[in-house]
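check these tokens.
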Amino acid sequence: QVRLVESGGGLVQAGDSLRLSCAASGRTFTDYTMGWFRQAPGKEREFVATIIWNGRVTSYADSVKGRFTISRDNAKNTVYLQMNSLEPEDTADYYCAAALSSRILTTERRYGYWGLGTQVTVSS
């Protein structure tokens, strides 16, 4: 099993940047594809970004492409989500997820481990 703890959320203004972190503990971090998902108030949880074990392949939702960057530091067992040019539409709870896989995974049901989330609020 793997335990995930997110941090870095907060209240920012439109156009600002935030970096979310997700610290993993438990099994070997490089066994996992990591992902970020988000859930806005009154909406279903949606895919944001994913990264494979060695960081060489990533994938993004169209809504964040060019603004968000996912990365991982395997020495620190941590995955990051750098969010630039934030928009009010990015307001959501952001969740880190892990999947025991070496592939890019964009589907929520493929992830077996989840953090508790961190809240991001972007004011206009």
Summary: DSSP finds no helices and eleven strands in the chain. The two ends are 40 Å apart (CA to CA). The CA atoms of residues 81 and 114 lie 15 Å apart. The chain has a mean pLDDT of 97.
